[in-house]
From TrEMBL:
UniProt domain HTH luxR-type: residue ranges: 150-215
Source organism of the structure: Blastococcus haudaquaticus
Keywords: DNA-binding, Phosphoprotein, Transcription, Transcription regulation
Record-annotated Response regulatory domain positions: 9-125
Cited Pfam families: GerE, Response_reg
Range of residues in the leader sequence: none
SMART domains the record matches: HTH_LUXR, REC
Superkingdom, taxonomy of origin: Bacteria
Transmembrane segments annotated in the record for this chain: none
Gene Ontology terms describing biological process: phosphorelay signal transduction system; regulation of DNA-templated transcription
PANTHER family given in the database record: TRANSCRIPTIONAL REGULATORY PROTEIN NARL-RELATED, TWO-COMPONENT RESPONSE REGULATOR
Stated name of the protein: Two component transcriptional regulator, LuxR family
GO molecular function: DNA binding
In-chain residues carrying the UniProt-annotated modification 4-aspartylphosphate: D60
Length: 218
C-alpha cells in the first residue's frame, strides 16, 4: 500500500504499443499517479513488476508469450503486495474467474473511461477489489451457488473445454473426441492444450485425475 502523500506507482502491461503508451501517458498525467514502467508481453510485465514493486499493475489479458493471467499469477505469488487490475476485451466468465484465481483484484473492460481506470487503480492500491457492477453480480451469483458437482467445477474453462475434459476423463482419445463433438483433430488438440494450461497440470493423466475428482468423465 502506498504511503499517504506519495504518488501511487503504476506499471502498464499491454502488447499494443498505441494503447499501452496512450494509457501510460493518460495515467501519468493524473495527479497522485506515477507510471514507473511499461511492458509489451507477459514475461516483461513480471520482470518490471518484480523489479519496480509498484502499487498496481494494469495488465492486459491477451499478450504474447505468457498471457496476462499467468503473468498475474507469477506477480501476485512473488509479491502479494502488488495489486493487479486486468484489462481485457472479453467479459466471459472463464476469463473473470481465471483472473481472480490468479490473484487479480480488479477487472476492467478496455472500453472503460479514464475515471473508471483511475478509480480501479486507487481502490486496488488501497487493498480493495473492483470488478464492475455486472461482473460483481455474476461473481456473487457464482459463489452463492457453491460448486456442488461437475457442472460448476473448473469455472476457468469454457463450455467447449469442459466438454473436451469430460471426454478426456472418460478415457477417450483425441480422435474419438473429435468424432464425438464434430470437431477437427487440430481443434481438439488446441482445446486439450488449453485445458492442461488452465488446470495447471503437465499432462493428460493429471488432468484426468483432477477431472474425475470433480465428478467428470462418468
Amino acid at each position: 500500500m502506498a504511503d499517504p502523500g506519495e504518488p501511487l506507482r503504476v506499471v502498464v502491461a499491454d502488447d499494443h504499443p498505441v494503447y499501452r503508451d496512450g494509457l501510460a501517458m493518460l495515467l501519468g498525467s493524473v495527479p497522485g499517479l506515477a507510471v514507473v514502467g511499461t511492458a509489451a508481453d507477459g514475461e516483461a510485465a513480471v520482470a518490471v513488476a518484480l523489479e519496480e514493486q509498484p502499487d498496481v499493475v494494469v495488465m492486459d489479458v491477451q499478450m504474447p508469450g505468457i498471457d496476462g493471467i499467468e503473468a498475474t499469477r507469477r506477480v501476485t505469488s512473488a509479491s502479494p503486495s502488488v495489486g493487479v487490475v486486468v484489462l481485457t476485451m472479453s467479459e466471459d466468465d472463464g476469463t473473470v474467474f481465471a483472473a481472480i484465481r490468479a490473484g487479480a483484484r480488479g477487472y476492467l473492460l478496455k472500453g472503460a473511461d479514464q475515471e473508471e481506470v483511475v478509480r480501479a487503480i486507487t481502490t486496488v492500491a488501497a487493498g480493495g477489489a473492483v470488478f464492475g457492477a455486472a461482473l460483481a453480480r455474476r461473481i456473487t451469483e457464482f459463489f452463492a451457488a457453491a460448486p456442488t458437482g461437475p457442472e460448476t467445477a473448473f469455472p476457468q474453462l469454457t463450455a467447449r473445454e469442459r466438454e473436451v475434459l469430460d471426454l478426456v476423463a472418460a478415457g477417450r482419445s483425441n480422435a474419438q473426441i473429435a468424432a464425438a463433438l464434430y470437431l477437427s483433430p487440430k481443434t481438439v488438440r488446441n482445446n486439450v492444450s488449453n485445458v492442461l494450461t488452465k488446470l495447471q497440470v503437465t499432462d493428460r493423466a493429471q488432468a484426468i485425475i483432477r477431472a474425475r475428482e470433480a465428478g467428470l468423465g462418468r
